[in-house]
Amino acid sequence: MKTIKLNNGSEMPIVGLGTWQATDEEVETAINTALEAGYRHIDTAYVYMNEAPIGRALKKWLDSGKVKREELFIVTKLPNFGNHPDRVEKYIKRSLAALQLDYLDLYLVHHPCGLVEREGDMLPRDESGALLVDKETDIISVWKAMEKLVDAGLTRAIGLSNFNSNQIKRITDSARIVPANLQVELHVYFQQRELVAFCHALDISVCAYAPIGSPGLQSFVKMIGDDPEMIPKLSPLTEPVVCKLAEKYNKTPAQVLLRHIIQRDIAVIPKSANPQRIKQNIDIFDFELSNEEMEELNALDKGHKGRLFGEHMLKGINEHPEYPYRAPY
Ligand SMILES: NC(=O)c1ccc[n+]([C@@H]2O[C@H](COP(=O)([O-])OP(=O)(O)OC[C@H]3O[C@@H](n4cnc5c(N)ncnc54)[C@H](OP(=O)(O)O)[C@@H]3O)[C@@H](O)[C@H]2O)c1
Questions:
Q1: Is residue 325 one of the residues assigned to a domain?
Q2: Active site residues per annotation
Q3: What percent of the chain has pLDDT over 90?
Q4: How many domains is the chain partitioned into structurally?
């Protein structure tokens, strides 16, 4: 498995398994299938509410000796309502307990916007359905608390998710430990070229979420009471250029989309709960897109118009002073 070297010296497998929206039952089976297929990088988050079943599956593998802890790369995230220096350690310890691990390989601040903490409520909202944002969020003091987790040996690396370049700059300007990774939405219609170049120049690796266009997003948006009609109608999986290349290489459209991203030295974490698709999504190392084909795919970038996880989601979050998506990149 190809890896990306992080600025703390560790190696992140360039393909990982995403687990958002995977139920307890699905995720345990998915982890087993993924580990059998050669995945060693698993991405989860406190708010996905599936760390415990992931932990159960990992424990079986570790106890059986089929895999060693140091061969795994486990990532989870500080929830928005943990964006306060006094809460950071509590949430990583909860995640570690659920995952049945002593340390993480990477712990990310899930989102720059803090939310009000209401025990057990993953999306605290007011009567109108707007999220209860904590406008006092201080991303610098949150980062300082993240640095202490590395000192305490609770995680090997720390990073950010959904932060823009201005916010990353503010953090790196005062950081003792530079973020090792930025996880953001990134796919063929939203290629994030400026943000990736900005991060790579600072030796911050990038990981793409929604790398095949998050076809499950509509159902999530509906489930949380937001309007799925507001999501741009974009389907990378049915994009003609992608389908043409899939046919040429006898690969699936998803495999072409993933290959396009990893050839830019960006990690991908496609989510699947389907055994066949889990195996396909990591089977992308036996073909290579030519420079011309990369250019053809690069030309499909729609800039901000390609963003799927935008203002239409999580009503009220854009009231937060750290709302990240108004910056140019
Ligand atoms: N940091 C953040 O804020 C953030 C936000 C979103 C996501 N993430 C992370 O990134 C991961 C990936 O993002 P995502 O789940 O939104 O989107 P994604 O990986 O682009 O798409 C996942 C969806 O595609 C389907 N799928 C998977 N492989 C496929 C294939 N080969 N062909 C056709 N359909 C396929 C899956 O359904 P089946 O399960 O039925 O295969 C699922 O509905 C998440 O799971 C999560 O770990 C992070």
A1: no
A2: 48
A3: 92
A4: 1
